[in-house]
Amino acid sequence: MRLVRLIANLGYGSRKEVARMFREGRITDAEGDVLYADDKREHGEIRIDDEVLDPPSGLCLMLNKPRGVTCSTRDAGRIVYDLLPDRFRARNPALSTVGRLDRETSGLLLLTDDGPLLHRIISPKSRIAKVYEATLAQDLRGDEVALFASGNLMLESEKTPLLPAELDVLDARRARLTLHEGRYHQVRRMFAASGNHVDSLQRLTVGGLGLDDLAEGDWRILDHNDIQTLFSSGARA
Ligand code: URA
Fold it and tell me: What are the sequence ranges of the domains in the chain?
């Protein structure tokens, strides 16, 4: 791939802008020798203003999404892309969220520009477990563990019942719910079906990946081992 296209695809600017960066001598190799648009170099050998390039496509990252931030590329309010470097929004292939979290749900959100990986993560076949912690408006009734585990719970306007889900009760109004699928507003709708209301919701894990010490609003790039961890186990409640 021509260097202009490679660098433009990473979001550093339009091809015209990147061509100008070449003319200005801002793009060099690791030794500081100026590169030209027609040169051939490996990604890792290229520097812009002496900085290494952002990761190539195949990027996957995790973000600790705060409440009040939308999983969308455009919204009147704050969006997840506001928490990432500006360039990431202009990458080609595009960096997309792996599924969504509601605006008022916080916690672990994955983003990737790797289409096959995204589909593998969200595919029902992968059955990747996701653990949510919910704080409820009312005390639990006592039958929720059995109801959610039954495999018979039918949510309004759905055609098939939910897969069995595990509920761990932490106290009267707090519980962890492990899901093996991802339907629209699923956790909120499950508790609504049991006559309750979710006051606050956080996603703690996706597969084997947890938030660990990632602060709210922070993100980190996942490496090969992280991706293996993601697929390695179900829930890590
Ligand atoms: N279930 C919900 O209700 N909301 C989310 O954001 C994720 C799962």
Answer: 3-52, 60-124+208-230, 129-206
